[in-house]
Write a structure and sequence with these properties.
Largest sheet: 7 strands, mixed
Shape: rod-shaped
CATH class of one domain: Alpha Beta
Distance between the termini: 50 Å
Strand order of the largest sheet: 1-9-2-3-8-7-6
Radius of gyration: 42 Å
CATH superfamily of one domain: Class I glutamine amidotransferase (GATase) domain
Number of helices: 13
CATH architecture of one domain: 3-Layer(aba) Sandwich
Strand content: 5-15%
CATH topology of one domain: Rossmann fold
Structural class: alpha/beta
Length: 430
């Protein structure tokens, strides 16, 4: 039991540590469906009220919209250009923003790969980190250079065509379909109330949203796009003969069609209809949302920890199990050797092995005293010593002890056998 606990406790402690870390990280990571997440109407930890106040102080008009359709209509009605701020692009209806005016700027915060594909944006994710990192601009963009280092690197992006890349791919600006300007930001930390005062976050956030005199802030916290619909199953209309409506005949032009016209469509003729994802593109195999919820670095870390645990278990395996008898490398006083061996066997609860050693020593003394070979059997020992065979067999070939009391009793009986065989009887010469 103790051996099992020594092997299980480290694994259990590590499992608890990893599980606790994941739980704390999930609690500390804000959810886009939280009503306080980057909303301009509140000043909370994960809200954007501080950013909205700073924009208004600069003379920028901030209009909060709660639907993508209303936000697009508001931007189309702006004559001097506007900025569409998407704090949660994964929840927005990105298919409706494709017709924005050319002087519009769209700022999307940490969009996922599926959101990028749904918006038909020429950019893709290039990696993610466990937490947001502070990094320098490393580019020539005037806005990024003026802001300096900022906590913006959590998701990195790679544009598919020419674009401005800053902060190691965490800030990418490009033109979409030669129309509006798109800027993807790799982390929401620069816009949050509890992070905006750190590093160059405030300068970067305000600079991104103050390019136009009006900001349309899309504040959505639930899915704001139509769900993909499955097309109805294909069911061809039955062929009509005789006096039917125009276009419903068999293509022969008369009522006595022979069915050989080209106007009839048989089931199975032509390509079958394929399901789409709601944007006109065929839907591929769905990925497991569990793997998309955590960055690849987490799975790599867990795999590395598992390999480390296996290596530690393999290194400790030589210390598991009962002690093995080995010759001593140097001479040690007999009393110390006996006590050391006894403690080792006691710690390992190796009662059977301990009794085997005592029996081997007893056999050696008995066979030497009786002038028998070392491998003499129980019958030979009993015949030579004049003792009953069953008595000798029960002692030398008995059942292994199941408790410490059985071990002590077996040792006492064994010593009594040795004393009875080796002690000279009355009338015999010693």
């Amino acid at each position: 039991m103790r051996r099992w606990m020594r092997a299980a406790i480290p694994f259990a402690a590590l499992t608890v540590l990893i599980t606790g870390t994941l739980i704390v990280h999930a609690i500390e990571t804000p959810d886009t469906d939280d009503p306080e997440y980057l909303t301009p109407d509140r000043v909370e930890q994960i809200s954007g009220g501080t950013l909205a106040e700073r924009l208004r102080a600069r003379g920028v008009r901030v209009d909060r919209m709660t639907s993508t359709e209303d936000a697009v209509e508001a931007i189309k009605g702006t004559r001097s250009g506007a900025t569409l701020f998407l704090p949660a692009p994964d929840l927005a209806d990105l298919s409706s923003i494709r017709g924005l005016p050319e002087d519009t700027r769209v700022v999307a915060v940490n969009p996922s790969g599926s959101a990028l594909r749904r918006g038909d944006w020429p950019v893709e994710t290039a990696g993610s980190h466990w937490t947001t990192r502070v990094t320098g601009p490393a580019c020539t963009d005037d806005l990024a250079v003026a802001a300096g280092p900022a906590a913006v690197l959590r998701t990195a992006y790679q544009p598919l065509e020419g674009a401005s890349i800053c902060y190691s791919g965490a800030l990418v600006t490009m033109r979409v379909d030669r129309a509006y300007t798109l800027t993807v930001v790799g982390s929401p930390d620069v816009f949050r109330d509890d992070r905006i005062a750190e590093h160059g976050n405030a300068a970067l956030a305000v600079g991104l949203l103050s390019d136009h005199p009006r900001v349309v802030w899309l504040d959505v916290h639930e899915r704001d796009r139509p769900e993909p619909t499955t097309p109805p199953p294909y069911s061809p209309e039955p062929a009509v003969t005789g006096d039917g409506p125009p276009g419903t005949g068999n293509g022969t032009g008369d009522g006595d069609g022979d069915g050989s016209g080209q106007g009839d469509a048989e089931p199975g003729d032509g390509p079958a209809p394929s399901a789409t994802d709601g944007a006109g593109q065929a839907s591929g195999p769905q990925q497991n949302p569990l793997f998309e919820a955590f960055p690849p670095a987490l799975w790599a870390t867990l795999l590395l920890l598992a390999l480390i645990l296996l290596a530690l278990a393999a290194a400790a395996a030589r210390r598991l199990g009962t002690p093995a008898a080995e010759p001593l490398p140097s001479r040690v006083p007999a009393n110390e050797t006996m006590l050391g061996h006894a403690r080792l066997y006691q710690r390992g609860r190796a009662r059977e092995q301990s009794l085997d050693i005592l029996i081997a020593a007893a056999r050696r003394r008995i066979t030497t005293h009786l002038a028998l070979p070392a491998d003499a059997g129980v019958e030979d020992i009993a015949a030579k010593s004049g003792l009953p065979v069953r008595y000798v067999r029960d002692i030398l070939d008995g059942e292994p002890p199941r408790s410490n009391a059985d071990m002590v009793e077996a040792a006492i009986v064994l010593q009594a056998l040795v004393d009875r065989v080796t002690t000279p009887r009355e009338g015999e010469q010693s």
